[in-house]
Amino acid sequence: MSATASPTVSATAAIELRGVVKRFGDLTAVDHLDLHVPEGTCVGLLGPNGAGKSTTMRMLTAQAIADEGELTVLGRTLPGDSKQARAECGVVPQLDNLDVTLTVEQNLYVFSCLYRIPRRERRAAVERALGIARLADRRDAKVDKLSGGMRRRLLIARALVHQPRLVLLDEPTVGLDPQVRQELWALIDGLRSEGVSILMSTHYIEEAERLCDTVTIMSKGRAVANGVPHELVRAHAGEQAWEVYGPPAMLEEVEQLAAREGRPSRRTGTAVAVLGGDAPPVGFESQTQPRLANLEDVFVLLTGEDIG
User: Fold this and answer.
1) Residues 117 and 128 in one domain
2) d(Cα 69, Cα 113) in Å, to the nearest integer?
3) Domain count across the chain
4) 228: phi > 0 → left, psi -120 to 50 → alpha, else beta; which?
5) What CATH number does residue 280 fall under?
6) pLDDT tens-digit readout, 79-111
7) Over the range 245-260, which residues count as b (16 or more CB within 10 Å of their CB) and which as e?
């Protein structure tokens, strides 16, 4: 989690999903999902590609309609009140859909009009958004001249131009290098510290640990775990992990030993991580390096998927 102090949490839900199902033909993309986002918190949807994260985001913006279940956003019931709910939300899509024929400032001004900000307040709203995204010095640049990181900052600024109560971030740092990702994390964390409600889908483990008050881990359309990151680690992986290095045949032996002892294990490249317990696997002490268990361990244990 972020080092920033957590904001005061309201008991009121910014988002509430109960038993939500979304099907596409024979495929069930979201399968009886429950999700609770308290006002003033950042909640992460963590899961591999195809887990149902983006479909969930599309239902929250009424781009897709649930087949079953109940969805409430900022006290509005979807899809009936989706127009009113969207007016109080900012949405950062996974795919860049900026107008490349316009400048940075013009993109923001267009959205200040679409969000029906009063004419006399639009200039101030655009300036505020430029400041948040640190793009004031690039206001006159055409979008197609911006770097990938700047374009992602502009997408976030565009979502904030009307000062929304809730921000939906769908894979906000996908495809960006680590330095740019850190820059965007600071921007998102600033919103969180100001009490803006945030739902963020991601498959970057460190991103979820750094920014989110709680995470919901999804796999194959279902929520398989929900809670505070460090509490999920303690509950599913324990405090300690033991990395055993060696040839494939030896690693298979370690996995079998861990299974007999009732200790979960997972492959980590050229090693096997044996989780839990106060000691390394018996007989493999010389090939073992201890480390703390982490949210990535929980992710792989629960989803059975590779990250990425």
Assistant:
1) yes
2) 34
3) 3
4) beta
5) 3.30.70
6) 999 999 999 999 999 899 999 999 999 999 999
7) bbeeeebebbbebbee
